[in-house]
Design brief:
Alpha-Beta Plaits, alpha/beta, 37% helix, 26% strand, homodimer, Rossmann fold, six-stranded parallel sheet, ten-stranded mixed sheet, Dihydrodipicolinate Reductase, domain 2
Chain lengths: 429, 429
């Protein structure tokens, strides 16, 4: 058994978790997994982290080149994140003939093809299980166990921050602001929560999953994303009364006219397996033509869970190194399916309007929907009015996204309408 | 890309599903998975199946040797099942230098070590994802994605027949007999349902999962199994009133004194992810020291789902053949942990006694528990009495299995006690 040397760049939350797993289980990697691996070089911008982790000073560097250029390093773990330095690091490591393990969803969702091409050119591995769903095995099952299937649907609760917030709003009536403050206090949300609450984090993850599941490259820019900022606890209550649960869902469907992919708050039936995934948990639901429905559930965030996925990947790459079969499964995007315009979407909608407490508002707004051939399933006008503002809640029959958007543009321009408070898609999975 | 020739032995439900997937997706295996595979030889006892599947007559055989001895065959799929002929087939195929894919839980749970040893001796692959959980990827995640973890718990609903029956009994009040008859009518249960309803099928599956998860061989004989024959709808109702759901759970825990493994009807909290797995669905819940809680959900039975796992394995073996790295991951049982005696179990118990409708029964039976130091949390005496028979439902505090069994032996011998109607373990997961 040869010794495989691993270098790690980025010693933040996940990086610290990786160091911790190596220190606890290095011997188990030999006996249980059949690989002899050592973390032999460390890089981070901050020298404080070297001390905090008790790493040997002569193996620690503030310049990542020291890791990538060390000829003894076989595998480079990139945990810087983002598409700046991380992009340089990954390409440089691959070009130096090293295999790469990364948790970088932004990089894989924007430059995934470039990364895989550089790996293929060198005949090395690139693995990124931790980029989606924290510790949940989902990329490996899609690239391996489920390959006999034509996958038709991938739907996930892939952002723990927003799922925690929505759970608190639904179960305990917290406002969006209170739920966010609590998530920040508990360390589940960043000081700047934009990437989470606006759905961008989820969009990167579904781009990665769709590319693998449908064997066709989808990049972040192609994923329309709406977040949860405008949701009120009352929306979650209305949904519940109708037998639904609201989740920030990342969805991708293979259709006869291309890939339907999007991220938005979604009403899903309360009995669906995804509906009971609460708190910071993540789950990815996959439908294949043979396997039927499957779901992969677990901790989507947290240092240890993500580190589990990173080290699992490192072990797998080490096995390939040990057995001389790097590059076993590279890019699987063999097709070029078009990505559908969300304007072509046909689904049901939940719409909350904040309106003036005036006569005729219901009739006027309903007429606008009728003019655009958006057929209404129900309209509710709860009694609550605060400061002269009333609420109208519409649920439509199946309608086209473009017709709904045109209706809402016209409705928003009415004097008697203050704002479109919330827009949810209803998916009867 | 070289052509990989696959032979299949056993063309029943799953075998037919495999043939079907090959006919639908052979071209996709090339383009999406990067392997060129063909089903080139078929064996079954019944020639009718050859015709039904429209297979070429010169490639069909009633003697399995024709497949195993064909020098052009690279991979043999064994779908006969059981430990008789299937055992011969698998060993012969491996000894002939062919890789083997099987769905055979009985074989892997009894002779798994022998099978893996023969594969290792020849440097070939043996894969058996379909032996547990139908189409759900669970063996591959345990052998690959989760290898960075020390797995502490594996718990599964791994028998679709009994889960269907329990769901119908809990939700619609069906009796055991009615639920079984319905499951048989729908094709979810065999004419002889013993293996399912007595927990033997689940026992084989948890033996396989525990061996992989804990890196230590556990065989079928070491798994105490109790089934669901004695359960009544009233047991499921009592459980629900207490906030629990009854599932036939296959459990394995790594403890400081060895592997705790067993199959029995179990009361689990209604909020646990396993509690909402209903109908013929299966789910396996895994806890690792880094990944935390994860769960793998899907169709545990059915031709297409199991065939998905079989063909997924075949593709993986084909990739290894194509890249010259057969034998990448073989036996992972590096340790020899003892298996604990179930008599040493300490948990809570739900006990239903069928008793005479006579004064003092509650006092007398309670005293027996007290004599054995089994502390009682509650006792309920529902009003219903039919034919002079009454019911007593006990729930204990944590007690030892041996003390509970000794109590029940003594209680059963009492004239005023007709029978121990049901015994459930309560697991506060």
């Amino acid at each position: 058994m040869r010794t495989i040397n691993v270098g790690i760049i980025g010693l933040g939350t996940v990086g610290s978790g990786v160091v911790e797993i190596f220190s606890r289980h290095a011997e188990h990697f030999r006996t249980r997994a059949g690989v002899d691996m050592r973390l032999t070089r460390f890089a981070d911008r901050s020298t404080e982290r070297f001390d905090a982790l008790g790493l040997p000073a002569d193996r620690c560097h503030t310049d990542w080149h020291a890791v990538v250029e060390d000829p003894e390093i076989d595998i480079v773990i990139e945990l810087i994140g983002g598409t700046g330095v991380a992009h340089e690091v990954v390409i440089a490591a691959l070009d130096a003939g090293k295999s790469v393990v990364t948790a970088n969803k932004a990089l894989m969702a924007t430059a995934g093809q470039e990364v895989l091409d550089h790996a293929a050119a060198q005949g090395v591995d690139v693995a990124f299980e931790a980029s989606v769903g924290g510790g949940i095995p989902i990329i490996a099952p899609l690239k391996h166990s489920l390959t006999a299937n034509e996958i038709t649907d991938v739907m996930g609760i892939v952002n723990g921050t927003t799922n925690y917030m929505l759970t608190r709003m639904a179960e305990d009536g917290l406002s969006y602001a209170a739920a966010l403050a609590e998530a920040q206090a508990k360390g589940f949300a960043e000081a700047d929560p934009t990437a989470d609450v606006d759905g961008l984090d989820a969009a990167a993850k579904i781009a990665i999953l769709a590319s693998i599941a449908f064997n066709s490259r989808v990049v972040l820019d192609q994923v329309p994303a709406e977040g949860i900022r405008s949701l009120a606890p009352s929306d979650l209550e209305f949904a519940r009364d109708m037998g639904y649960v609201v989740k920030l869902l990342a969805l991708a469907h293979r259709t006869s006219t291309g890939i339907d992919i999007r991220v938005h708050p979604t009403m899903i039936p309360a009995a669906h397996p995804l509906a009971s995934v609460n708190g910071v948990y993540n789950a990815i639901y996959v439908v294949g033509d043979s396997v039927g429905e499957t779901m992969f559930f677990g901790e989507g965030a947290g240092s240890a869970a993500a580190a589990s996925a990173v080290v699992g990947d490192v072990i797998e790459v080490a096995r390939h190194l040990e057995n001389g079969c790097l590059g076993l499964v590279g890019c699987t995007c063999a097709e070029e399916l078009p990505v559908r315009d969300i304007a072509d979407l046909i689904t049901r909608y939940y719409i909350r309007l904040q309106v003036a407490d005036a006569p005729g508002v219901l009739a006027t707004t309903s007429q606008v929907f009728a003019d655009h051939e958006v057929s209404l399933a129900s309209v509710m006008q709860p009694e609550v009015t605060e400061g002269g503002e009333a609420v109208l809640v519409y649920v439509t029959h199946r309608a086209s996204e473009s017709a709904v958007r045109a209706s809402l543009a016209e409705i928003e321009a009415l004097d008697i309408v203050h704002s479109v408070g919330a827009l949810l898609r209803v998916e009867d999975l």
